[in-house]
Structure formats: structure tokens, C-alpha cells
Amino acid sequence: MAHHLTGIDHTVLAAADLEAARATYTRLGFTLTPRGRHIGWATGNYCIMFPGNYVELLGIATPGGFTAGLEETLKAKGEGVHKLVLGTDNAEAARVALATSGFNPSEVQSLKRELELPEGTVLPAFSLVHLPPEATPQASIFLCQHLTPELLRRPEWLVHPNGAEHLAGVVVVVDDPSALELPYERLLGAGSAVRTDRLVAARVGDETILFATADDLATMFPDLNHAARLTPYVAGMSFRVHNTEAVATYFKAAGIAHERSLDGTVLVPAEAAHGCFLEFSSRR
After folding, report:
1. Helix, strand or coil for residue 267?
2. Which one of 79, 135, 168, 240 is CB 3.0 to 4.6 Å from 274, fit for a cystine?
3. How many other C-beta atoms can be found within 10 angstroms of the C-beta atom of residue 76?
4. DSSP assignment of 140-178, as one string?
5. What is the domain-level CATH number for residue 79?
6. Is the dihedral of CA 228, 232, 233, 238 positive or negative?
7. What pLDDT digit, counting tens, does each position of 263-282 carry?
């Protein structure tokens, strides 16, 4: 792909109560990693890992410390996915390629966090590249290279009782999707952003960022209650599963509110998942 990008590496879901979010997503049938702590910060996380990407539940673990803007984000926007992270196979090469293309990326930044395992704490390491807002309009996006992937992908963390196999994409609600076709094609590569009527689907690796209006969202997901929110915002996350019937059966047995679309897709409303609806689909 263009600029050494590999796909959606992870989403960051801001949670007002980190332990409550952990309990919710465990009940929803996801396997979560042990708790992580950002070194020198007040924030902590739990991650829902897949072989190729993951979801990060981010919250405040130690009140009163540095939260890198998380407190302000929660006050202004409430819970939900507030950041998208694109993967890169080489952070420095990505930075150079982006700079050459005029995107004004940051220098490569190093990040480590503590992961609290039963046998002792380990330190997963990452290289990050940040982009200015004009490079990724209507979305907060940065790049991440994993330097120690083996620490985050233990086999037992990759199997989820609800059947989820992969984070397939996100739905972002904006006022004018058509204005985003060219900027994201420039970032992601020729032919990567496709406009259909008012929707723009930006393909990054095996995943899709779908930009839609609030009216389009209601049309695409009529079975969900879509509360009015200040745009832009990430309305939903899509997960790939092998069998949607098995997902629905799991949710029914667990007493989890969900809906079924005509094509069999299973939907969990945003109010049951800390600000972001969840879509489970067998579409490839």
C-alpha cells in the first residue's frame, strides 16, 4: 500500500470507567488481554486482539495524573471510538514517504506500556507517527508499528466466544463524505477511496473506513437507535465472523440486546457497547 501502510491496526475506544468497559466487552463475548498501563501516564487499557488487528479499551487507571487529553475528550464527546490507528511495517519509512508526499508527519516516537501478566509485567514497544488534522480530515488518525508483536498475540487471546475473527472496519459519520474521497485516496493510494452516491469507502489493507452522513447511517442501520451527535464521530465497528447465527445464539443465551438485519448481520446498539454500535457480519 501507499506510504508503507498495512491496514487498520486498531481502534481506540475511550471509556469513562475502564473496569466497567472491560466487564461489558467480556459479557459481549470478547476475550480481553490483562490490563496495560502507559508508563508515566494515568491511563490504562484492555485490548481485544485478533490475528491482524485489535480494539483498545482506554480509560483512566490512576485519577489525577496525565491522561494525554482523554479526560477532555470524554467530557466533550462522551464515550466511544475517538481514534483510528493505521498499521505500518516500517515507521521511519512511512514517515519519509509521507513527508515526501507533503503530509508533514511527526518524527517517529517511541512508546512502551506495561502489560500486567500473571507471571510478571512485560513491556510491549511501539513506534508511532502522528499526522496533522488536515492530512486525515474528519478523523483522528495516527500510525503504529509493533516492535514486540509476540507480547500481544498469545493464542488464547485470539479466540473469542462470540465468534469475532477480525476488526473489519468502522463507520464514521460526517456532514459531507464526498469531500473526503480525494484526501483519503491521496493518503491511502490510487483507487483506495470509492464514492457511491453520498458514501465514501476508504479501503486500507483488508479493512474499510466508511464515511456516511447521519441520514445514511439511519438508512443503512434502521434497526438501531441513532442519537444525534456532533459530527464527525465513529458510529460503529464491524467485525468479521464465520457464522452470524452462532453470534445471535450466543447473545440470546447471554441476555444481550441485539438486532438482526435482513442479511443476517447481528447488531449491538451503541448504548450497550460504550458509545459505538457493533456489527457482526460474515461478509468477506
Report:
1. strand
2. 79
3. 10
4. -EEEEEES-GGGT--GGGS--TT-EEEEEEEEEE-S-GG
5. 3.10.180.10
6. positive
7. 899 999 999 999 999 999 99
User: For residues 226 and 214, is the Cβ–Cβ distance under 8 A?
Assistant: yes
Question: Which of residues 157, 180, 195 is at a domain's end?
Answer: 157
**Helices marked H in 161-243:** 181-188, 214-220
Closest CA to 162 of 237, 223, 241: 241
Q: Is the same domain home to 271 and 191?
A: yes
- Identify the bridge partners of residue 33 per DSSP, sorted by sequence position: none
* Whole-number Å distance between alpha carbons of 13 and 70: 10
Cβ proximity of 164 and 30 under 8 Å: yes
146 and 180 part of one domain: no
Closest to 1 measured CA to CA, from 199, 171, 207, 139: 207
Residue 34 has φ and ψ, to the nearest 5°, of: -60, 170
Q: Which residue has the cell 470509492?
A: 194
Structural domain that includes position 52: 2-157
pLDDT tens sequence across 156-185: 999 999 999 999 999 999 999 999 999 999
Query: In terms of residues, how long is the chain?
Result: 284
- Number of domains comprising the chain: 2
Same domain, 211 and 96: no
Residue 26 and residue 141 in one domain: yes
SS (H, E, C) 171-186: EEECCCHHHHHHHHHH
Which residue in the block uniquely carries the three cell numbers 490483562? 34
Cell of 129: 507517527
| Residues lower than pLDDT 70 in the chain | 284
Q: Is 64 exposed, middle or buried (0-12, 13-18, 19+ CB in 10 A)?
A: exposed
Residue with cell 452462532: 246
| CA gap 113, 104 in Å, rounded | 27
